[in-house]
Amino acid sequence: MVTSHRQFKDAVYEQLARVGKAVAAPKRLELLDLLCQAPRTVETLAELSGLSVANASQHLKVLREARLVTAEKKGLYVEYRPADAQVGPFFLSLRTLAEARLAELEHVKRQYLEQRGEMEPVRDEELLRRVRAGEVTVIDVRPAEEYCAGHIPGAISIPISELKKRLAKLPKDREIVAYCRGPYCVWAVEAVKLLRKKGFRAHRMELGVVDWRARGYRVETQREARA
């Protein structure tokens, strides 16, 4: 039987819709965002996303069926990761489009920051130039495993839970730039608030590792940092 033009197009868009359906749930988007930071077990993903392990497993099954994530047995646990290098840019493109078209998204973010008396992040290219040139002290306040999986070159790993006890090791004669998972990660907000309270000159950078890589900037792994 010869396939008609209509049948061909219907089949193509049906396959494309599998990706759309897979990301048509807030929690699956959050899981995808987390996996773009570092590989995770379902138990860790459930904890970070506020889901039960059973619900996290179901969401991951949908993402796997759409070939967006893959899983590998690691000892007693199963570790999930993006199935392709294009998953990160896909998530970033989706987020960027939503930011451009949905004023509600900006309203939610602004309301959150204003309620906490927080400042807008520094976005200008001069700050990015200084970060890339090593002219400021950059701290990565994500969990250590995310830092090891990929971080901005030269950044110091100080998980937000450890920041208070490690303040004495930070230089007060240099500006500090804190970053985490991107514009909707609140750890950098908390970090800058604490640093400024303790007398440091600190700024929040909205770019996370996924954004950094998408701009064509080099991302360093822990293995490279030790070399």
What does this structure look like?
51% of the residues lie in helices and 12% in strands. It is an alpha/beta fold and 227 residues long. It has a 4-stranded parallel β-sheet with strand order 5-4-6-7, with helices on one face. The protein has a 3-stranded antiparallel β-sheet with strand order 1-3-2. Strand 6 (176-179), helix 9 and strand 7 (202-204) form a beta-alpha-beta unit. Helix 3 packs across helix 4. It starts with a helix and ends with a helix. The model has no long low-confidence stretch (mean pLDDT 91).
Helix amount: 40-55%
Instruction: Give the CA-based shape.
Output: globular
Order of helices and strands: HHEHHEEHHHEHEEHEHH
Q: Provide the structure class.
A: alpha/beta
Please indicate the percent range of residues in DSSP E strands (runs of 2 or more).
5-15%
**Largest sheet, order of strands side by side?**
5-4-6-7
Topology:
Layout: H1 5-22, H2 26-37, E1 40-41, H3 42-49, H4 53-65, E2 69-74, E3 77-82, H5 87-101, H6 103-115, H7 125-133, E4 137-140, H8 144-149, E5 156-157, E6 176-179, H9 187-197, E7 202-204, H10 209-214, H11 222-226
Parallel strand pairs: 4-5, 4-6, 6-7
Antiparallel strand pairs: 1-3, 2-3
Helix pairs in contact: 2-4, 3-4
